[in-house]
Write a structure and sequence with these properties.
This protein has about 1000 residues and is of the alpha/beta class. It has 35 helices and 23 strands.
Amino acid sequence: MADASAAPAGRGLRLYTIPAHRAFADALVAGLLRRFGGDRLALARGLVLVPNNRGGLAVREAFVRASGGALLLPRIVALGGEELDASVGAALDPADAVPPLPPAVDPLQRRMILARLVEEERAAAGRPVDAAEAVRLAGELARTLDQLIVEEVPPARLAAIDPGEGLSDHWETALRLFRLLLDRWPAERERLGCIDAAERRIRLIDRQAARWRDAPPGGFVCAAGITDPAPAVARLLRTVAGLPRGMVVFANLDLTLPGEEWDALGPHDPDPVTGLRRRAIEVHPQFHLKLLLERIGAGRDEVSRWTAASEHDATAARGRAIANALAPARFTAKWTALDAADRRLTGVSAVELATPAEEAQAVALKLREAVETPGLTAALVTPDRMLARRVAAHCRRWGIEVDDSAGRALAILPPGTLLTAIVEAAAQDFAPMALLTLLKHPLVRAGEGRGEWLDGVRRLDRALRGPRPAPGLAGIDRHLAAVPAFAGAAEWWRGARTLLEPVARGFGAETATLTGLVACLREAADLLAGEEAWRGPAGRAAADLLTGLEAQAPSGPQAIAPGGFAPLLRMLMDEIAVRLLPRERHARLAIYGLMEARLQSADLMILSGLNEGTWPGLPAPDPWLAPRVRAELGLPGLERGIGVAAHDFGQALGAREVVLTRARRDARSPALASRFWLRLEAMTGERFPRDATLAEWARALDGAAVPTPVDRPAPLPRKSLRPRQISVTEVDRLKADPFAFYARRILKLSPLDAVDADPSAAWRGTAVHGVLEAWAREDACDPERLLPRALTLLADPATHPLLRALWQPRLIAAFEWVAARTIADRAGGRAVLAVEGRGTTELSGIELTGRFDRIDRMPDGGLGIVDYKTGKAPSVAAVRGGFNLQLGLLGAIAEAGGFAGVAGAATAFEYWSLAKKGDAFGSVSTPADPGGKGGRILTDDFVRAARDSFAEAAARWLTGEEPFTAKLHPEFAPYAEYDQLTRRDEWYGRDA
């Protein structure tokens, strides 16, 4: 190893690099121990600067592995990240520093202030936005401000930008918001006596650099793995590299990259003749390191190789292959001339899977294999957090808890979903779906009383199925009180609704304050979940968010619509990553995001999600600064993140054993392989190492045996189990789909309505029948009273809005037709005899029951059976096929005296359809005709035909031993409630 105590030739800067094929943390520690390990206190006097807290943990664990016993560690300080003040401690911000730096403004407070300024600006411009949108725009403004501060670009330069042709309108819109940063934000910041956190970080770094230049520390200072090319960081690294006992160790700064390729990366000087500047290759993994070197003021020839190694390293051939694979695009032609050794990927295998689910399964299998190999460490590295969650879930099946170090968004963790459920339920006026989602949340009433609570929720669930009741808690009260069968649910609901009243009051106004809504939300969470809402890392994060919101809300927008609080809360929770506690981390397994994987090493590294758009991710468009504007300001290009992702890929690819995985499609469509995957494939050609075995294992783990298709269900219950009573409306189901009749009547399985369902045709029919029944009973079928009664129904708050908005014009026209038809019938000597009656008679040894809509006394003295239809009437073909004979069966009951107050022979059978026919609503049709016209059954034979058809069906399935075959006549069995029970897709369409 190069002697860290002796400065290299040149300007006295101690700059080193550890190549990709070496485990960075272990190699770094090996070199530091070799140089300083002889003195027991030399390490303790040292300082190691790392890019982030996870990198500090990697270095600390490497010291533990290398020491073999007790060791006084150097101070390890994370230089980057939002938690700078907490991590640097006395290292960069000593308490006796003079003068003390102003405190950093709280990020949430800054955002709320900017949101208020945005809201005021938009209102003044005549384009008002709600509070949630103002907070979103404030977040984007804050990110833009931080980029300017980090790159040390004065915000005042925004006003001097000439965006050029085609961007002027967009720029003028953006500049109006940027004026807030230029004119109003500095005044707000001065009023608070604070400075931006990014500016404070720069001052801390510069002050520390000046302190070290004036008085070099007695111990060593090592900056390790820092790749951030920000100007302040570059100045600090130059200072560290120039200290007598200082050193800067880069991660995978490629010293073997040919000079022509290195120079091509940029940034380039303007052409002396044209003034044009050649575009830099910011997508290359070495670009940001080259930029950092230039800002340090050093050349690549001043960087030495850190020669210490560790037992976790790969071969030097791997390092050469990585460098060649990631060459700039216009130099990849050299691949054809490379020696086989310079493009060989020994120790690397690639696995292509069909779907993301299969990819997660394969990765979990590989991690489990690592667990079963004594002493082996393994890590999954992926930017795809959904894939990471799937892998963790698969591992949990085997009792393996793996920590995803990138964390999970608070919004998807139980405390976050509880808060979201509360505000969604309140914002939707306690609509059934949102209300039940809240009441069934796993944190609500968790513990000893959970079972009893869920019993009550299930009763409420049953009561709320079907169309939505009136809004609000009071609407649910009325809905439950209206139906006696809901008495049990109503009794339980009286206790549950008291837990919701505080949030109902808070969200009941058209506008409210953010402070008030947060207080209501906290009270509701306490009432519903108690301490469970705030338990664990996720609970503490949720509590901290509400505390921060409550404290900073006065600085933000002064009014917020309760409906806008849900998106605001969800947006803020999406930005909060929650990580497991260290004690929950597996000893030999890990899951890393790209940032967390830096400086990490493991015996097996699994690089997953290698699809374009995932790794590397697509650059997020900047809503305010166009690429031309960013270039003029000197800000990083949007594509620089691709270069950083390429560097992360190359670093992880240097592990001793590597598995690459990708899925050939994502959740929506076929996926394109990552450019990194394609580069490796193109460079190695036929030698690209593929592992088909792992893919086969993943498919086989959950694969089923060769399926044996089931036969069409045809249950054969005993005669004693077959019902002896049937209604006229069930006869068609019995004949067309006997299994459906069996499931409903013998198995007693009735389908439930959906929660918060749209009003179906059946529900509409029930409403229409209710109007017509009340009109007949209470208004004596007075044509003048039908339309007012229908309007009264539609005006009822309990009437579904869809019925009122979409069906009202159609229903009004149809009711007008019914009234006109009634007048005409009366003129012809026809009179209403009975409405909505029930009756029964015995046919073929079976009790036949039925309910009629209306029975009229015809001019000839016979009975007219009328059935109201809100849709089309049955076809003649269906009737001729022995189906839709309900009118005939009702006639049979009437002729047998089964309906009270009704006597005589049935001589007319009519469907009164309220559907549109031609240009008008309303029509009368009949399945029978005196002369049999149109293929109809003779009127005189219609009742007999219905009796005969029913007798045949009863003899087969009710008094006989016929099996209840599924979908016997599928053309007359359109309903599908029991198709899943019959496993219909496994047999339907095949020969029996």
